[in-house]
Amino acid sequence: MVLLGEPNPSFQSAAFTMLAPAGCRHDPAGKAGLASLTCEMTLRGAGDRDGRALINDLDALGVDRGESVGVSQVSLRASGMAEALAPALEIYADILRRPLLPADQIEAGRMVCLQELRGIEDEPSHKLMQELRRQHYPSPWGLPSQGEIDTVKRLTPHDVEAFHGRHYQPGGAILAIAGGFEWERIVDLVQRLFADWEAPDEGAQAPPPEIAPVTHIPYESNQCHIGLAYDSVPYDHDDYFQAWASVGVLSGGMSSRLFTEVREKRGLCYTVSASLQSQKERSAVFCYAGTTCERAQETLDVTHAELLKLRDGIKQNELDCLKARIKSSLILQQESSSSRSGSLAHDWYRLGRVRPVDELSAIIDAITAESINKFLEGQPPENFTLVTLGPEPLESPVGIS
Amino acid sequence: MVLLGEPNPSFQSAAFTMLAPAGCRHDPAGKAGLASLTCEMTLRGAGDRDGRALINDLDALGVDRGESVGVSQVSLRASGMAEALAPALEIYADILRRPLLPADQIEAGRMVCLQELRGIEDEPSHKLMQELRRQHYPSPWGLPSQGEIDTVKRLTPHDVEAFHGRHYQPGGAILAIAGGFEWERIVDLVQRLFADWEAPDEGAQAPPPEIAPVTHIPYESNQCHIGLAYDSVPYDHDDYFQAWASVGVLSGGMSSRLFTEVREKRGLCYTVSASLQSQKERSAVFCYAGTTCERAQETLDVTHAELLKLRDGIKQNELDCLKARIKSSLILQQESSSSRSGSLAHDWYRLGRVRPVDELSAIIDAITAESINKFLEGQPPENFTLVTLGPEPLESPVGIS
After folding, report:
1. pLDDT band at residue B282 under the 50/70/90 scheme
2. I need a surface site. Which of A231, B15, B220, B364 has the fewest CB within 10 A?
3. pLDDT value at position B220?
4. What structural domains and CATH numbers belong to chain A?
5. Which residue has the higher pLDDT, B321 or B254?
6. Helix axis angle, A106-121 relative to A34-42, nearest 10°?
7. Which pLDDT belongs to residue B207?
């Protein structure tokens, strides 16, 4: 396990982010959703606390918490008063290492997972983007962590125990802490809590790729939801920030191209956006637009044209805006112990080190319109995946099929 | 206009929140949605900048912005690097006082408003809570700011100009600034930008109350969404924090009653929550639960029973958890210039003064299980408004009809 810390004496708060290599790509065949159910079950009692005592003790610390299950990792986050850090870490050591996984609560846990799955059916934009990810990335990299109703129904307490035993383990685990704390004391505490955590053997993976470039999901509505994706470079790639800046020109501020062309000039939709999402080994740009059925074809065509137009390069004034936005957001991030702990953990996971803020600033400063355009020449937006959700399919723009 | 400031030299960021008395309750009869369209149009050019220049200049400052139209107020927020504060304020003075409201962009602005309205049709939980607010508060206090498709279609450039002239005005406007800035310099700047802002005459209001205790919205889905509301006391009431604490016991942490009874023990749904929402003159608790149709009746019954059970009072350990949570969140809020500027503005609007954090801490410290229970005895949850959205209506619990 890796421990990262960024103590800052001016903070009265402290936060930590814990990543464990227990994401949904480790779900065994026919057991999709197991990573999510296991995460849900770990909070139902751990160490010498039953579920009630565990939740009460965490709440009594006033800790704001959150869990999420990604493709590769499960992420546990907590933030609160600096004094709450040590006792919260003690409880989280139990959650990770000694959860009770009570068999008599498996049905309640399963119901929560099924309710979440069914809830997505009622959120068309969520459903669409989930399908776009599934269609764009080869399996298991695009799988939704919630699994499927049929597979979740069949999961057993034994499955949960086996998954926990195999994947909640120190190899690949990262604990990152930021805010008001003393480094030496935290090192001692983490030593005591985690030094004897041992790794089990790991199993092998065999992902079968199967991808469709165009998918339509029939859905009764007067709205149509459009998703477009294309490959980009992952976070540890030398050109990552060139790719990231090119997407910043597409989407982000109100002067960004998609906002200007799709929303402001044509009023085609209320929401349009693009974001570069990087897993460790792969990365893609995902675009979303939601609009009425009558305007859906035009929205798709205009959005697609804007993506293609990136190949003609970006302008200096677009880059200036983007850099101002990035500088602002770096400063705001520095002023939050919670976002700092998340950055530390994700840097380590994706780079194998923490990138200091000064280095990041220097990288941003060095980006030029020329450097972005050179990148876009070598790796233009192409090989799109298109998913639409609405009453009727749309006509695919030339080049997507 | 009121200017509030909380300079903090340890911040590199700064943020402001501007409230202007131009919310949707000022929409004239037959013109619902005018406040929203006007807000959308103010950003399409102001002072000597056309729409493009205005957006570019704001983006070039790297400012993160947001606008929202409430019942009484329109709220404009911006945050970024401390150096961006003064130039951003200059632009916002133009937006508020000298927007171009270009007639040739009214159709694009209208389309954006219509797209937002139609988008809500596809988000059942949003649609439900909007209807619950409309049914619970007498008109115009529960009106959705987006208006209605028919009325938005009829709005003219003249309507927008008239609304701006009448409601974007200094009487009732509040500008609150927090983060890294010097108070004297900001006072000088704000003087220069706003000292000669004059108030027009204000019109009268005649809200006709019409409320139904139970409403069902037919919606084809295998999900059912449930909303329940009951009256509470507004922010400036002596008992506000007693009411707020009682809702904190219902919803918030994982040990809260609704989470425990509805989600954890019975697995009835993925999301269940209650929140105390206070306008200036009135306030209510709004509860939401989304679940599958088969479990909807049980979810409603259990949720309603938990609300009624508040009358039996709360326990000391529930209060302890709640207090820890509140303390944490106060500290986290102190560390964000953006949330501070929002708190300053809303305190002034609702209290006529800013409540110092120390005073707030003292109020929280003084809350006891007895003080909450005394409040609940005098003002128990009752006179519920129920709205459901799904394929079939549910049976109303005893006492709601």
Report:
1. confident
2. B220
3. 86
4. 2-194 (3.30.830.10), 216-390 (3.30.830.10)
5. B321
6. 130
7. 44
- Nearest 5°: phi and psi at B333? -65, -40
Rounded to whole angstroms, the Cα distance separating A123 from A241 reads 32
Find out whether A290 and A270 touch, Cβ atoms under 8 Å: yes
| Contact indicator for A80, A13 with CB cutoff of 8 Å | yes
Backbone angles phi, psi at A120, to 5 degrees: -65, -30
A118 to A68, B127, B271, B341, B385: CA distances (angstroms):
18, 18, 12, 39, 26
Tallying the residues shown for chain A, one arrives at 401
Please list every residue in chain B whose beta carbon sits closer than 8 Å to the beta carbon of residue A111.
Answer: 266-268
Binary contact (A271, B119; C-beta < 8 A):
yes
CB A344 within 8 A of CB A175: no
Nearest to B122 among A81, A119, A223 (CB): A223
Contact B267 A64 (CB under 8 A): no
Q: Hey, which residues does A141 pair with through a beta bridge?
A: none
Nearest to B325 among A62, A270, A328 (CB): A62
A18: closest CA of chain B, how far (Å): 19
Residue with tokens 């109350």: B209
> Averaged over A93-110, what is the pLDDT?
95
HSE of B50, CA atoms in CB hemisphere, 13 A = 5
- Report the C-alpha gap between B258 and B270 in whole angstroms: 11
Confidence (pLDDT) at B209: 46
- How big is the A-B interface in CB pairs under 8 Å? 205
Rounded distance between C-alpha atoms, residue A3 and residue A19, angstroms: 11
Question: Distance between CA atoms of A223 and A271, rounded to whole angstroms?
Answer: 12
B chain contacts of residue A85, beta-carbon cutoff 8 Å: none
Contacts of B8 in chain A (CB under 8 A): none
Which of A91, A282, A72, A298 is closest to A167 using CA atoms? A72
Enumerate the residues of chain A whose CB falls inside 8 A of the CB of residue B121: 221-223
Give per-residue burial for B174-207: e unless 16+ CB within 10 Å, then b: bbbbbbbbeeeebeebbeebbeeeeeeeeeeeee
Q: Which residues of B258-285 are buried (b: 16+ CB within 10 A; e: fewer)?
A: bbbbbbbebbbbbbbbbebebbbebbbb
Alpha-carbon distance of A113 to A33, in angstroms, equals 8
Poorest-pLDDT segment among A266-275, B26-35, B299-308: A266-275
Q: How far off is chain B from A336, nearest CA to CA, in Å?
A: 7
The answer to whether the beta carbons of residues B51 and A264 sit under 8 Å apart is: yes
**CB-CB neighbours of B154 under 10 Å:** 12
Indicate if the pLDDT at residue A86 is higher than 60: yes
pTM of the model: 0.84
Q: Summarize pLDDT for B75-99 with one digit per residue, the tens.
A: 999 999 999 999 999 999 999 999 9
Query: Given B121, B124, B260, which is nearest A223 (Cβ)?
Result: B121
Q: Kindly state the tokens that stand for B334.
A: 């102190």
Tell me the shortest Cα–Cα distance from A206 to chain B, in angstroms.
32
For B110, the closest chain A residue by CA position comes to A267
Higher pLDDT, B191 or B332: B191
Go through chain B and tell me how many residues it has.
401
